[in-house]
Each structure stands twice: as structure tokens, then as C-alpha cells.
Amino acid sequence: MAEPRYLIGQGEKLSEEIGRAPRGMGEKSNPYSFSTARKRLTSEFEAVAEDIDELPELAQPGGDAVIEITLHPSYLAKTYYPKSLIDDLGLYHLGSRAIHIAPEKVVGKRAEASGLLQPAPVLYLAGHARMIVEFSRSVTSWQPDDDVADAFRRIEAVQTPGKDRLKRLSNRFADRD
After folding, report:
1. With contact defined as beta carbons under 8 Å apart, do 69 and 123 qualify?
2. Burial call 117-132: b when 16+ CB within 10 Å, e when fewer
3. Whole-model pTM?
4. Residue 99 lies in a domain
5. Which residues, at least 6 apart from 140, have a Cβ–Cβ distance to it below 8 Å?
6. What is the residue-level pLDDT of the chain in tens, covering all 177 positions?
7. 83 in a domain, yes or no?
């Protein structure tokens, strides 16, 4: 026969509330301030403006151009997608891919210990070529609101897509202009 099991009446009086462990990771440590990011990226945006100016009209369908924005490796989560910046600049998202880069400034001990190359997202964004060029030339005096400035400082690099990203047209377009 099994041993008797006793019930303790009003057992809740014998227990006490235990505090919950804190949630979340705290405040995000950003690699760059807005002013630092703007100084770092000014020359890259100027190079983007020059590249777009040199594009033939055929490479600008509907007057649009494409730029690559590489985010810092510490902004991999979907919540860091720079929607406010993209909307503010009048761009739209074409696609993305992952690359491995060595960022200019590393944030966190785990990142330093893991080696030089870290995964980072590259966003392909398109918009009207003239607007991109105008923004690229005025980035030094640009004063966005806080949300857009926060998204801007997540950028590690900006450039136009390289020749390795070009795709050939199929022969079915050979008879067209």
C-alpha cells in the first residue's frame, strides 16, 4: 500500500513571491552616432552620386537607379530594418542578401572574439536617380528627425551595385531598342 499523502491547508501562506529576473538586453550599444555616421558616409554618398551621373539612360529604367546599403553586423534582426530612412529618402526595397564584412567599429565582446568577418545584410534600394543624387550631395547638411537619424547610423557602407550584379538580357529582346 502507498504511503499516505498529507494535504496542507492554506499552503499559500507558507510561500512568498519571488521577484522575476529582468527581461530584455537593455539599451542597444550603437557603433556610430549620427554625426559620426554622416561623416563616415559622406564620401561614399558622393561616389554614389558620381556613379549614377555616369549611368547611361538605358540603365535607368523610368529614371530610377539602384543603390546598395550595407547595415552594420550588429543590426541583423528584422526590427532594425531602416524603414523610416527608406521612406524619408523616397526609396523602395528591391531585395537583399547576406555578406560577411569586417566593420569599421566592432560592438560587443562576442563580436571581437568571433573573428574579423561578421554577417551583415545588404539592402538593394531603388528610387528616382535625381533624388538620390541630390540627397547624396546634400548629406553633409541633412538634419532628419530622430527616428530617421537612428536608422541612418545603422549603415556601414553605401555604394552602387558592382558589375558583378549585372544580368544579361536574353536574346528574345534582341529585336527591340
Report:
1. yes
2. ebebbbbbbbbebeeb
3. 0.77
4. yes
5. 38, 42
6. 688 877 777 777 777 777 776 666 666 778 899 999 999 999 999 999 999 999 888 888 899 999 999 999 988 888 899 999 999 999 999 999 999 998 888 876 655 655 678 899 999 999 999 999 999 999 999 999 999 999 999 999 999 998 777 667 677 766 665
7. yes
Mind giving me the DSSP string for the chain?
-PPP-PPPTTGGGG----PPPPPS--S---S--HHHHHHHHHHHHHHHHHHHHHS-GGGSGGGEEEEEEEEPTT--SGGG--HHHHHHTT-EEEEEEEEEE--SS--SHHHHHT-S-EEEEEEEEEEEHHHHHHHHHHGGG----HHHHHHHTTEEEEEPPPGGG--PPPGGGTT--
Domain residues for the domain of 105 are 31-158
Quick one: CA dihedral 58, 60, 61, 63, positive or negative? negative
| pLDDT at site 177 | 58
pLDDT at 140 (0 to 100)? 92
Q: Is 176 within a domain?
A: no
Q: Note whether residue 52 is domain-resident.
A: yes
User: How many structural domains comprise the chain?
Assistant: 1
